[in-house]
Give the backbone structure.
Amino acid sequence: EVQLVESGGKLVQAGESLTLSCAASGDNFDDHAVGWFRQAPGEGRQGLSCLSSSGYDYANSVKDRFTMSIGNNRDVVHLQLSRLKPEDTAVYYCATVIEGDYNDCLQPYEMETWGQGTQVTVSA
């Protein structure tokens, strides 16, 4: 079993940068795909970036501004958000799925375990 806790969300101004973190306990991310997702008010959950056996993948809408990375012990992943826009305001989630149980790790429905989310608010 793995538990996930996101952190780092806060209120920032448009154009600024922010780094989010997702810490795993009970297990690390070995043998899993792990991804970042967000959900804005009134909208569905959107895949942003994920790391799998195929490497890093990004949604086209954010690939020029967001960068995902993983810690050396593979128990923490980060998402660096650059040149933030008001439309980036959302709750950001980390999620995992065991290898073999998914086809596309950018799809929220593929994920099995979710963190509680962290709020990012970008003011104009």
Notes: The chain has no helices and eleven strands. The mean pLDDT is 96. The longest strand covers residues 90-98. The CA atoms of residues 10 and 120 lie 5 Å apart.
